Amino acid sequence: MKKFVLIALLFSFLVPLAQNTQKKPGPKKPNTAPSVSQSKQISNNHTQNLVTTLTHDTCLNRKFSIVFYVILDSAGLPGQANPGAIAQFVDTLNNRFRRICVKFESCSTVYISNHSYAEWYRPTTDTIVTSQWHTDKTINIYLVDSIYQNFPYEVQGYTYLPPSSPTVTPKDNIVLEKWQLLVNNCVISLHHIGHFFGLLHTHDEINPGLAAAPPPPPGVASKEYVDGSNCLIHGDGLCDTEADPLGGAVADGKGDFYLKPVDNYMSFSSNSCRFTQQQYNRMAYIMITARRYLH
Ligand SMILES: [Zn+2]
Hints:
Helix content: 25-40%
Structural class: alpha/beta
Bound molecules: zinc ion
């Protein structure tokens, strides 16, 4: 019963926020309603409060459909993107997201027989393939042999963050190298699912233009301190992911030793195995707002 009360409470906050993000601008009312920028600020503050203060999961009771597109190799075979591997990946996804009552379903697998696309060159192949093979309002996962893209893009896979406003057309594509689907317990695949639902890297910096005093060591982008005192405004903006310098820096600007979040899916560690509570909260929020249109 207590759980349901908490869920009801959460939705009493989240549902108005979700509606707010889809509101179309209407005629200006002659009252003291907050301006668009004020509303956005209030909305962001509420979101931030919810994401960083909820200490429990919420049950979304949502299902997402996935369509897999497998580029066949020169022998006409799916290689490591065989039906068993895809089923195992979906199982792993469902295991990771069960705690927020989110289920993923593989709707269909489409085989693309032009094997030249298997060597996926992002600047050109992406446009050609995704304009011909794409299912609206589902998660489209393209499984290819190898991905070529230029720095600073990531290797082995890529996707898109949720649209920043209702006027931005969302991109529902995730491109992965086939061998990454299952390796290290799906670590790369889950990393990109995290991005797709709004998570940043643990070493990212949400306010690069805002100074921190003392500053981070040279070469470190994240200004988050190990002691967590500025975790809401620096680093990835989440407080239960440890400050992450990414490179070899040993201590932050205050001299506190980094304890890198090597177990986190959103770090660059290959041994990661978890999302934190606030990361689940953030993804849950995105699932019912910016990614709400998905079937
Ligand atoms: Zn990434």
